Amino acid sequence: MSKSVYEIWLSTADNKERLRLPVLPSSVSLSIGNKNESVDISNLGEITIIQDPAPKTIQFSSFFPAHKTPLVEYNNFPKPWDAVHKLEKWQKDKKPLRIVVTKTKINIPVSIESFDYNETAGAVGDISYDLSLKEFKFISIRKIKVKVQKPKKPKPKRPNPKPKPRTHTVKRGDTLWDLARKYYGNSLEWRKIWNANKDMMVKRDKRNLKQPGHWIFPGQKLKIP
Q1: Residue 188: CB partners within 8 Å, gap ≥ 6?
Q2: Max Cα separation, the chain?
Q3: Fewer CB atoms inside 10 Å of the end CB: C or N, the chain?
């Protein structure tokens, strides 16, 4: 019996573990469902909401032979229980596999939905099985960069380069010596007030030329530097 041009392979995603089916199934069923929903809306009737296609389902049946027969596709095929344990391990791991059917377009990632087996009656050592696979959808998580704005620090207030000058309105009995003690804590600082106001004070009373700051009058506004 001539061998088929087709080969059916199952492998892990990294292709480190592989299993070629020693006996090809008589048929492979591939179905594509959908998740469309129908709803009844008052006065409009039935509305169909089209959803994304459901994953493909692949189903087939075959057997793992204990001995070489004309149905076996290649030499050095795995022992039946070795093949069974490999499939059970893959199913338990819950990791995606890949099925490839050569000479066809079937090359898709899958997960094992069900794997049922039993020893074939009349064929000692052979293990028949039914395998159902479901297309595995890889999900790529889109990363969104969120720019977090740092709270703006309030700008420090700049000191006024030209602070508002202090003034003092002269009252009856005021003297520059008293004002110096009041504002500077030292009567000997009276000349600061005199130097800041001498033009106005001399203009008001020429006697201030001979006796600086001695002649001040109520109502005068003096700068206090």
Answers
A1: 180
A2: 143
A3: N
Question: Per the structure, how many domains does the chain have?
Answer: 2
Total length of the chain = 225
Q: What is the domain extent for residue 182?
A: 166-224
pLDDT tens-digit series, residues 123-155: 788 999 999 999 888 776 667 777 777 787 777
CA distance 16 to 70: 29
- Write out pLDDT tens, residues 20-57: 999 999 888 878 766 555 555 444 455 555 556 678 88
Task: Decide: 99 and 8 in contact? Cβ < 8 Å.
Answer: yes
The tokens for 67 are 């001995």
Q: How far is CA 213 from the centre of its chain?
A: 77
- Same domain? For 170 and 131 the reply is no
With contact defined as beta carbons under 8 Å apart, do 190 and 183 qualify?
A: no
Which pTM value belongs to this model? 0.55
Q: Answer yes or no: is 42 within a domain.
A: yes
The residue assigned the tokens 């008001």 is 204
Count the neighbouring beta carbons within 10 Å of the beta carbon of residue 222.
Answer: 21
CA-CA distance, 30 to 59, in Å (whole number)? Answer: 7
Strand pairing class (8-12; 97-101): antiparallel
Domain end residue (candidates: 87, 118, 135): 135
Closest CA to 23 of 81, 59, 63: 63
